[in-house]
Amino acid sequence: MRNSNTPKKKNWLITLVTILFLAAVGAGVYLMIASPEEQSTTESLEKTSFSEREYQGGGGVNVVIEDEPETIEPGTVNDQTQQPEEDGSAEEATDTEESSDAIQNETVEEVDQPDDSLVVVPEPDLSSMIANAKTYVYTIYTDLDQGSGFLFNNKGDILTNAHVVKDSQYVTVKNSNSQEFNGQVVGFSRTTDIALIRVPEIAGKAAMDVEMQEVSAGTKVFALGSPENINNTSTEGEITATGMDFFDGYKYEDLYEMTAKIKQGSSGGPLISAESGRILGINSIVLTDNPDIGYSIPIYTVNDQLQEWAENPLPAESDAWQPEVPDASFEEEALRGFISDFYELVPYSLNDDEVTFYQFFLLSGSQGEMAGNEMVEGLKGEQRVFQAVEPVITDIEIGDNEAYITANATFTFHDQEDDKLVSISHAVIYTIVIDRFGDYQISAITNQDQ
After folding, report:
1. Where are the alpha helices (DSSP H) in 47-161?
2. Which of 24, 157, 268, 299 has the most CB atoms less than 10 A away?
3. Helices (H) and strands (E) in the chain, counts
4. What average pLDDT score do residues 64-86 get?
5. What CATH class has 101-126+328-447?
6. What is the DSSP letter of 362?
7. Mean pLDDT across the chain, nearest whole number?
8. Could you tell me which residue, 63 or 360, shows the higher pLDDT?
9. pLDDT, tens digit (0-9, with 9 covering 90-100), for 112-153
């Protein structure tokens, strides 16, 4: 027999399943409608940038809802960098802190520049090498002749040609500042045209570097000396041949032939490489039938003899080698040249930290050394390429032990960041002294208004 209640129970189960099915369908439709909104909220949190978040001490993150940013058109740039105050107080304070008293008196202005031109930084020239080398070159006077020479070592020995001092009774040397000293011939050859003059007053002064290997033809060079008694004359050229031999009273071997012109009075001056800055030789002879070509004795070929003389100097033959030493003095023209050379060297140091030729003009340990270095450091800038300096000397006052030079100088540089030419003007007073080597030196730098 079958139970009579079975059909009713079956109908009830069918109804229950139908209700559950409809409920599941409804829930699915609801989730499909709701999930995009919930998902967008999740993605909004995940994509929030660091600039849109606030970080608090507890490490929690608060999402900051910002207004929709402005639409940026293609090809435009919005500068969102916070601009400094227009009064420039922050920059002015920094400049004041970094400046020394010697360079506070300056003005800065933009220089006009054609819109259709680009600033081209000039190639480095020989002016820095020449200005530096001048302090090592001397004019030589004897009772019979005038020639040139240059400092060879730190013993105060000046190298020149033998024919410059031959048969003379006394020797006087004059530096680039027109200071004169007595000299004694401590080395002399009757076969090779070289001689060494010792000046005790300049002992301790370091000499220029000397090239101890042969250089090749084509090397760019310049010659320094006092042709026709004109101090510190420089000529440029190149070595055209090596290994040249002559005999003209002296035996000349392995000479450098060069196009840097030399004249009477240039004998004994240095031939210097324009590439390395080292001294290559002793300018010695020029052919009368071809005065555009000169010849120089390579120092490496005579170095052994020179070193022997330096260690074992020849004794003085008579008291005539000891003339009275003229008193050191200031000369206006020499002072002008000194400051002009100083300004000529400064821009090279502004563009290259390794070039410090200008420091030879600053008296070691003085206020002038400190102020001069601060002036150079204050002018430097990562985006600045200095191109020129125009000094104007407005006054020279000569005292008993010091001279005072009032000068205005305008430095012009290319600001690479803004692509502009800018000039900076300085107005200062230099105090000049004569050091123990007879060289002018800057002992102090002060503002003109102090």
Report:
1. 89-98, 127-133
2. 268
3. 7, 19
4. 41
5. alpha beta
6. B
7. 77
8. 360
9. 554 444 444 444 467 888 888 999 999 999 988 899 999 999
